[in-house]
Design a protein that fits this description.
It comes from Flagellimonas pelagia. It is built from no helices and 13 strands. By secondary structure, the chain is mostly beta strands. The strands form 2 sheets. Strands 4-5-6-7-8-9-10-11-12-13 form a 10-stranded antiparallel barrel. The radius of gyration is 15 Å and the shape is globular. The protein has a single domain, classed as Lipocalin (Beta Barrel), CATH 2.40.128. The chain is about 0% helix and about 60% strand. Strand 6 and strand 7 form a beta hairpin.
Length: about 160
């Protein structure tokens, strides 16, 4: 499967997409707490990239909410992500690492993909290049700005909460 790389653009406002945002140059992340994004907790699944995408999020604990993600195509894991939303001083950051189906890391062992907080609304959180919105108690949309072959595209992951 082709590798997906998250695009972290240095720009202002909304970047070639309708749902994701970027911090302006010199702009700092706003104040926020994990309590304000605790609605993300749960087990979510949906279709993406021709397969099944699944995310499992923990409740806030120890200044973080951890998650795991997997994409399954043709009954085989295409890739995993492991990460967290971390309380960092008075704001939040989403950090993750990618792994192939055999748990071989994509990033160097000390490298993470970081998404700084841009804006927070009730039931919606904007990180740089990644937006999460609670549609209702059983549905969540995640929009991710992805770069592939020099092209940027916003991808929707429409999740349903698993019982």
């Amino acid at each position: 499967m082709r590798r997906l790389l998250f695009l972290l653009l240095m720009g202002t406002g909304i970047v070639s997409a309708q749902k994701t945002m970027q911090l302006s140059e010199g702009q700092e992340s706003p104040s926020a707490s994990l309590k304000e994004v605790a609605w993300i907790e749960g087990s979510w699944s949906g279709e993406a990239f021709g397969g099944t995408a699944e995310e499992i999020w923990s409740a806030p604990l120890g200044d973080s909410m951890m998650f795991v993600f997997r994409l399954v195509n043709d009954n085989k894991v295409s890739f995993y992500e492991v990460g967290h939303i971390q309380q960092l001083e008075n704001s939040l950051i989403l950090q993750l690492k990618h792994f192939d189906g055999n748990l071989k890391g994509w990033e160097d062992k000390i490298e993470t993909i970081d998404f700084k907080l841009v804006k927070l609304e009730k039931n919606k959180v904007y990180f740089e290049g990644l937006t999460m919105e609670l549609v209702d108690k059983n549905h969540m949309n995640v929009y991710v700005l992805i770069e592939e072959n020099g092209e940027a595209e916003e991808i929707l992951f429409a999740y349903s909460k698993k019982p």
